[in-house]
Design goal:
15 helices, FAD/NAD(P)-binding domain, globular, alpha/beta, about 550 residues
């Protein structure tokens, strides 16, 4: 029998026949909720027939009939009460299981995050898109249908969202644009590598969101919980509805700290740190300074991740500091990478390997961090390929820098906008959604096969601006994104291997080779990273000034 579990305590399925009750009992169910009214189908057994069969197997049963499309607030309350009262696990059924799944979803509203509710239902095969507004309204039928609307709505006020808003206004300052983002602070995340190396102060990498949102853009300080693309609507917490003519999706990605067992409990102490969080980057520098001997581990999870070079940037800078202090020989550094290679674009690997050798770093490929015990200074890695696949390797450490697993935000993964991997399903050149023509995406949330870096967002923002305005008839020719991304690999204090590449690993250097040869360590590239790129970010990218980021026209 096909039981679709929504939680450990509840499964749903289509109509249960009395003759199937033995299977229900053997599956371990203690109770049944019947949500199908008697007489709905000509071949349908009555509730009394089902009740008698359940009683023979010692299964409790509750009759809560609901007509299709007519779930009342009282029905939801009764379902929730039944779930509280009945022995677990419970099996609920109707004709297809949809009404039972919907009753559960509505009864869980306010108890679970909305993406969790939608995701569980989706995994079980039930689309709760039609109930999103009601789930957002704590499971009750909305009575206040107040809506706001804007010509262009941007979800996310980070690097990509703020940049594309600025690029749009730079082209047409009459546009009606709204950014939806609950955050009060905007971070320059590329700077955290240098915070973790003692080069930048953390305060230099943050500004108030109010100072970053472009003038003339409406800032909606709430969180998006769901999308209704067929209705051109975004649903916010509390069931507020924002309508749009065109939508740009740019909320970034989710750092899944819970994806490593024991990690959240020990972050920021016991020698466990990460430059992927603003408040932890200073702890990285603290650990690097006080480490004089022992074992230092650096980890990288499966791709895709934000800035694929960041997990090893911190490793090189740490080793360089230890070398300058004369203690490098006393420290065993190891790089545990879930992937099979040091860096995905082969042209940059030889220069990086020279530093790996110089610093005496041990490379452990296809090792994915799955568990950590901070007080015991122990980490466990799972081999992800080749000989010994699936084997768990236990390793001691004195210091460990963790790059967390990463994925699309929950409310994106469960939405109609997502591809099979959970990212927004867009054309890699136009950045327009493959199904919904008035929706675009850029930044880390996009399903394009490019590196997820701030430099990529800098190049994507003008492309989205051009193509959206082309769609509106304001620009004659569309633009194309070539997959450009940049990863300044800080191999030592004062030198950088400036990796710049596009789709398929094609090298896309900004400067002639005689200025900066990106495949070799360069002092000029360090100057660019430390002195030039931060003001370019704050004063150009987020202001719609597209220095070295003019979009290429589609077709050449």
């Amino acid at each position: 029998m096909d039981y679709k579990f929504l939680t450990d305590d509840l499964a749903v399925r289509p109509q249960v026949e009395p003759k199937e009750m033995a299977d229900v009992a053997s599956a371990g169910f203690k109770s049944i909720i019947v949500n199908r009214p008697d007489g709905e189908g000509a071949d349908q057994p009555t509730f009394e027939e089902v009740r008698q069969a359940a009683a023979e197997k010692g299964i409790e049963i509750r009759y809560l009939p609901v007509a299709p499309g007519k779930i009342s607030d009282e029905n939801v309350k009764e379902f929730g009460q039944a779930m509280a009262d009945l022995p677990k696990p419970v099996l609920a059924f109707c004709r297809t299981g949809t009404r039972s799944a919907t009753l559960w979803a509505l009864s869980e509203a306010g108890k679970r995050p909305i993406p969790d509710i939608l995701g569980r239902a989706k995994t079980a095969g039930y689309d709760m898109g039609g109930a999103v507004r009601r789930i957002a309204n704590q499971g009750r039928v909305p009575t206040d249908m107040a809506e706001t609307s804007h010509q262009i709505v941007i979800v996310g006020g980070g690097s990509a969202g703020a940049a594309v808003a600025a690029s749009l206004l730079h082209r047409d300052d009459s546009l009606d644009i709204a950014i939806i983002d609950p955050s009060e602070v905007h971070y320059y995340q590329p700077g955290w590598t240098l915070v973790g190396a003692g080069v930048f102060k953390p305060e230099a990498t943050r500004k108030n969101m109010a100072d970053v949102i472009p003038a003339g853009v409406k800032w909606i300080r709430e969180a998006v919980v769901a999308f209704e693309p067929e209705a051109n609507a975004v649903i916010l917490e509390g069931c507020r509805v924002v309508r749009y003519e065109r939508l740009i999706v740019a909320p970034g990605l989710k750092l899944n700290w819970d994806g490593v067992a024991g990690l959240t409990e020990t972050l920021g102490k016991n020698g466990v740190t990460s430059n992927y969080r603003y408040d932890l980057a200073p702890y990285t520098w603290e650990l690097v300074q006080r480490t004089k001997s022992g074992r230092a581990l650096f980890t990288q999870p499966p791709m895709p991740i934000k800035c694929a070079g960041a997990p090893q940037k911190v490793m090189y800078l740490s080793a360089d500091h230890w070398r300058s202090q004369g203690v490098l020989k006393n420290i065993g550094s190891e790089f545990y990478n879930a992937g099979p290679v040091l860096f995905g674009v082969k042209e940059y690997v030889p220069a990086l390997m020279e530093y790996v050798k110089a610093y005496g770093i041990g490379l452990k490929f296809q090792h994915n961090l799955v568990r950590i015990d901070g007080p015991a200074k122990t980490a466990w890695f799972k081999k992800t390929g080749g000989e010994g696949e699936g084997e768990i390797v236990e390793t001691k450490f004195d210091m460990i820098h963790v790059c967390p697993p990463q994925q699309a935000p929950d409310f994106i993964r469960v939405s109609p906008l997502a591809d099979a991997a959970g990212w927004v399903d867009v054309d890699p050149a136009t950045l327009r959604h493959k199904k919904y023509e008035n929706i675009y995406a850029l930044g880390d949330v996009g399903g394009m096969p490019n590196a997820k870096t701030a430099a990529a967002a800098r190049k994507q923002a003008p492309v989205v601006a051009e193509n959206l305005l082309h769609d509106m008839g304001k620009v004659q020719k569309a633009a194309a994104y070539d997959g450009y991304g940049s990863c300044p690999l800080t191999v030592e204090r004062g030198k950088i291997v400036l990796a710049e590449f596009g789709y398929g690993g094609k090298l896309l250097p900004t400067f002639p080779k005689w200025v900066i040869d990106g495949t070799q360590p360069s002092r000029l590239a360090w100057y660019l990273k430390e002195r030039v790129l931060p003001p370019v970010y704050w004063q150009a990218m987020l202001k719609g000034r597209e220095y070295l980021a003019k979009p290429e026209r589609a077709g050449g």
